[in-house]
Amino acid sequence: EEGAKTAITYKEGDQSLVKEIRDPRGIATIEIYNAHGLLLKKEISGSLHEEFDYDAALRLIRHDHLTFSYT
Question: Structure pTM?
């Protein structure tokens, strides 16, 4: 579709940043970042929900059902 655009908006929360990406079809992707800029959650309307956890050294330790360890 000619002229179709993707819109990106940002909202600052308390110790977080919410990024919304809305594609030309109106489908929204929501990403929530913490104060360190690390992705905490990602959701796509009606199809995807992912969560991320980090250790004290800011290393990814969990992505949904996957876990990570460092030596």
Answer: 0.82
